[in-house]
Specification:
Elements: E1 16-17, E2 24-25, H1 51-59, H2 64-72, H3 78-91, H4 95-108, H5 113-125, H6 129-142, H7 148-163
Antiparallel strand pairs: 1-2
Helix pairs in contact: 2-3, 2-4, 3-4, 4-6, 5-6
């Protein structure tokens, strides 16, 4: 049985999901002001995505496209969007899903340090060559100066992998 995220009472058949924090609430706490929602004021302040919030979204089977869609509707802040994409990127076994994440990072068009870090992570850590190549191409496009060292490293290691 579902429990209210605020008062922890069991909820019958009628539960409410906050559009800001995506937690489940009873009728009494369904409004953001009644459950002290920390996500209501999505402004210049940096919003921290909690692990539990991420799990609730994953349980809804949100795709990368859904996350991008919520970002364009301004229901997700840039930081929350990047955190959600990072969550999927680091946990997905499917190479195509990871490629979609990398493309979404480009489409977000955010000059954010974390975006560079995620793309760099894909180049260095991803086992799939296609994911690595897509990340390298996007790094070249979005961060041409900043990515020179990582691209040089990738080219050297990629050529060794082909020769060996």
């Amino acid at each position: 049985m579902k429990k209210c995220s605020f008062c922890e009472k069991n909820i019958g058949s009628l539960s409410f999901t906050c559009k800001y924090c995506s937690k489940i609430f009873c009728n009494s706490h369904r409004l953001p002001e009644n459950h002290e929602c920390t996500f209501v004021l999505i402004s210049d302040s940096i919003e921290k995505l909690r692990y539990q919030d991420t799990l609730e979204f994953v349980n809804r089977d949100l795709s990368v496209a859904d996350i991008y869609h919520y970002f364009t509707l301004k229901e997700f802040s840039p930081e929350k969007t990047i955190d959600m994409i990072q969550f999927i990127l680091e946990r997905s076994e499917d190479a195509q899903t990871r490629i979609n994440c990398v493309h979404a990072l480009k489409l977000l068009n955010l000059k954010h340090e974390k975006v560079f870090g995620l793309l760099e992570y894909c180049v260095i850590s991803d086992k799939n060559k296609e994911v690595q190549h897509v990340a390298v191409n996007i790094l070249k496009e979005l961060y041409p100066k900043k990515s020179k060292n990582i691209i040089k490293w990738f080219d050297e290691n990629d050529n060794r992998g082909r020769a060996g």
